[in-house]
Amino acid sequence: QLVESGGGSVQAGGSLRPSCAASGSILNSNCMGWFRHLPGKDKEGVATYETRERTTAYADSVKGRFTISHDNAKNTLYLQMNNLIPEDTAMYYCAAGGSPAATLRLSKFGYWGQGTQVTVS
């Protein structure tokens, strides 16, 4: 199970830090990540984290602004979002899968959370 929290509404230039708590068999997943669904667009990868080598992958649109991290002790994934812009407004989803490397490909992720809304005005 993946449970997201920490979304919300902020003004442009602000920050948010959503988190995703993992439990059950998902704890053995190689790769975890954040995806988002913008209004009128397909779901897209934002940032992913490979848990063994601790490698990351980021979408070009968030590089330098977003940072993904993982707390093994808490089984929790985070997404530090800084310098938010209105174009970041979306439903953000946590996902987990068996990819051996950090990837933004949706097809590599079989477990999904319910999502947390981020709104930037």
Largest sheet: 7 strands, mixed
From the structure provided, what is the oligomeric state, counting identical versus distinct chains? single chain
Shape: globular
Low-pLDDT runs? none
Query: How far apart, in Å, are the first and last alpha carbons?
Result: 31 Å
Order of helices and strands: EEEEEEEEEEE
Helix content: under 10%
Number of DSSP E strands: 11
β-strand percent reads: over 45%
Structural Rg:
13 Å
What is the count of helical runs? Answer: 0
Mean pLDDT: 93
Class inferred from helices and paired strands: mainly beta
Quick summary:
The protein has no helices and 11 strands. Helices cover 0% and strands 47% of the residues. The strands form 2 sheets. Strands 2, 4, 5, 6, 9, 10 and 11 form a 7-stranded mixed sheet that branches. A 4-stranded antiparallel sheet has the order 1-3-8-7, with no helix packed on it.
Description of the molecule:
The protein is mostly beta strands and 121 residues long. Strand 5 (43-50) and strand 6 form a beta hairpin. 0% of the residues lie in helices and 47% in strands. It starts with a strand and ends with a strand.
